[in-house]
């Protein structure tokens, strides 16, 4: 076997997993979201930055505000999803580095410039977005990640401190009826991988 991961788990996380567009009414609990985070927090980031911030949208009022910032094709499924998460990069992540990267006390100083912090926060939080989606799948749930939204509107409406930048909105739940679009093709190994 080339992979150490059990084939059933491989299917759950990758081969059989799909982006869900409809969901059942089954709730997604705080216990499930905590378990997802407790798993994905171990995914690597540069200098252990961990810039991802997760905002769970549970109230009807917050859901309605969010829907107003989504593209038309994303509104109906977001209104019906059991749980919606706004995934954002914390552009002030460097303030946590003294405790999260303690063996290099000067780490925080490397991110004194805002532009440098924003680039690093975006890159590393996007890695964590991928971990989050896999974590949702590991919980036996389906994720519906979306990038069709007014980012500036979401930032202003949900992160008024100006320190966060939205990266994705993810609908979460158990897949409902006709949840899947047909599987799109994937590039082959030969199309993607080269060796030098």
TrEMBL record:
Domain Nitroreductase: from-to ranges: 17-173
Q: Which keywords annotate this record?
A: Flavoprotein, FMN, NADP, Oxidoreductase
Keyword Flavoprotein listed? The answer is: yes
InterPro entries attached to this UniProt entry: Nitroreductase (IPR029479), Nitroreductase-like (IPR000415), Nitroreductase_HadB/RutE (IPR050461), RutE-like (IPR023936)
> Which Pfam families does this entry report, sorted A to Z?
Nitroreductase
Gene3D superfamilies, alphabetized: NADH Oxidase (3.40.109.10)
Task: List the SUPFAM superfamilies hit by this protein, alphabetically.
Answer: FMN-dependent nitroreductase-like
Coiled-coil zones: none
**What is the protein name given in its UniProt record?**
Malonic semialdehyde reductase
Q: From which organism does this entry originate?
A: Streptomyces glomeratus
